[in-house]
Amino acid sequence: MSTVIATRGLAKQYGRLHAVDGIDLDVRAGDVYGFLGANGSGKTTTVRMLLGLVLPTRGEIDLLGERMPRAGRRVLPRVGALIESPAAHGHLSGRENLALLDAAGPGGSRRDRRRRVADVLDQVGLGGVGRRPVKAYSLGMRQRLGLAGALLRRPELLVLDEPTNGLDPQGISEIRELLLELHRGGTTIFLSSHLLAEVEQLCTRVGVLDRGRLVLQDDLAILTAPTGATVVRTPTPERVRAVLDGRVAAVDAERVVVSGGDAAEVNALLVRAGIPITGLAPDRPTLEEVVLAAAATSADRVERAP
Ligand SMILES: Nc1ncnc2c1ncn2[C@@H]1O[C@H](COP(=O)(O)OP(=O)(O)OP(=O)(O)O)[C@@H](O)[C@H]1O
Fold this sequence. Notes:
By secondary structure, this protein is an alpha/beta fold. About 35% of the residues lie in helices and about 25% in strands. The chain has 2 domains: about 5-225, Rossmann fold; about 230-280, Alpha-Beta Plaits, CATH 3.30.70. The chain has helices at about 45-50, 70-75, 95-105, 110-125, 140-150, 170-185, 195-200, 220-225, 235-245, 265-270, 285-295, and strands at about 5-15, 15-25, 25-30, 30-35, 60-65, 65-70, 80, 155-160, 190-195, 205-210, 215-220, 230-235, 250, 255-260, 280. Pfam families: ABC_tran.
């Protein structure tokens, strides 16, 4: 699988502050990469360095196989980016804003340009409101307009810094659906977030930044792989303990963790003993548990799932 973003020892220092402290990112084609970290952990600084907007103090960046920032003019047209709240001219419509943005790049006849703008407006679900002035847009619509701008050039890679910041649950779920659709269409997505639940629902790969250091980077499926134990939910945990003598690893209210991953065998034993079971499944850690274990020293700084 080809590498889309690779950094080696990437660092940014502001005076004595190590905002980003020697990170080796590894983002592959087809990933939805969730770049997690508490406020101030260095996500935005990293994203800015990837896009050539901030110069690293040390380290190397390869973006789509080319060295940044040297190859920026060649590479950046293949990358769509959304950093912080996108700026737009409020008195102009969404369509006019995108047309202005499009005019700044190469791109053929007026008809081609009009079509390109109409296509991305449809893609982000703003087709019907594209003629309304942007000052009448909700925050979610503005965010989608920003995404439309990032999509104009049909990028191979999308780099998004906190794309759901300030959105309500419906806005968040709309953006999530849109990103999943783009991913299905073959776009690699790198997205920074401080929301574990969002990343867990969307991402295939996760990197966790803690005070400038990358403390974890792996596929989500590996990080949250079954532990080899079985979780039993029952109103009578003590009866489970009696039947599965010595195999109960933990009891938390009505949740019992049984060592041994053969859920069918555990089920058969409990049913035979007449124990009521309300749920039974292989045990797997949540992303929250994995992240908190990795960034143990900053456990209170990463926002937990609701
Ligand atoms: N231009 C700058 N000059 C000095 N310090 C900076 C500058 N930019 C960022 N920092 C500091 O670097 C650290 C990392 O900031 P950064 O914005 O990258 O974090 P973040 O993870 O994106 O946080 P947030 O989620 O709040 O945006 C912070 O302590 C911040 O104050």
